[in-house]
Amino acid sequence: MSGFEHDNPHRISKGRLETMVDTIFAFAMTLLVLGMTMPQLSASQAITELPGYLEKLLPQFVLFVIAFLVLAFFWIEHHRQFHYLRVVDPAVLRFNIAILIFIVLIPFTTDVSGAYDGIMIAVLLFHLNILIVGGLFLGQWTHICRCRHICDAEFGIANEENRFQLLATVPSIAILGMGVALFSPPYSLLVYLLVPIIMAIKKKTPILQEDESR
Predict the structure, then answer these.
(1) Which residues contact 214 (CB under 8 A, 6 or more apart)?
(2) What is the DSSP letter of 32?
(3) What is the pLDDT of residues 114-160, one digit of tens each?
(4) Residue extents of the structural domains in the chain
(5) How many angstroms separate the first and last alpha carbons of the chain?
(6) How far apart are CA 129 and CA 173, in angstroms?
(7) What pLDDT digit, counting tens, does each position of 17-43 carry?
(8) Top CATH class, 3-212
(9) d(CA 177, CA 155)
(10) What gap in Å lies between CA 69 and CA 91, rounded to an integer?
(11) Is 117 exposed, middle or buried (0-12, 13-18, 19+ CB in 10 A)?
(12) Which pTM was predicted?
């Protein structure tokens, strides 16, 4: 272990950073549901009015599921990136702080775009949020790939290329969503349903099967 890794009192351990990331992801995923609120109805009112309120909540519920799946994708990919990471250097720490800033913003942008899904600026706010997080993940992975001294011995070129392609899908989908939003803001949010489909396809590739068996 180098002097930087062992003797630097300011070094943040990999485990400590992973604990912080897991906690904030869990918090952000939980906050998503708070965007769906129901009015206080009496028992007599609920009989006639509750179905209508539930129907109005359907678009917000769909967006909740979409945002939850996107957050789950980012959390899984963070775990996979850190699988190859041996030590946290200052750049990785900065990337993670920036990532967490915009992860915490996702419940807010989800709430805004769900409440005003017909307004382009509200929907674009959500797309931009996802685009920034996706770009930061790509930046962090690029840094990890360039700094082999912070990776463990099992890291290889195949891991680098496959992971980069996978991480590039979410920013690409966010850009696609922005394009669709110019014509139909509400339907542009549905493009993120491609995320679980792409994950399912990529999961069948040999490199990811090998990754998950470790």
Answers:
(1) 83, 154
(2) G
(3) 888 889 999 999 999 999 999 999 999 989 888 878 877 666 655 66
(4) 3-212
(5) 23
(6) 12
(7) 999 999 999 999 999 988 777 666 666
(8) mainly alpha
(9) 33
(10) 27
(11) buried
(12) 0.83
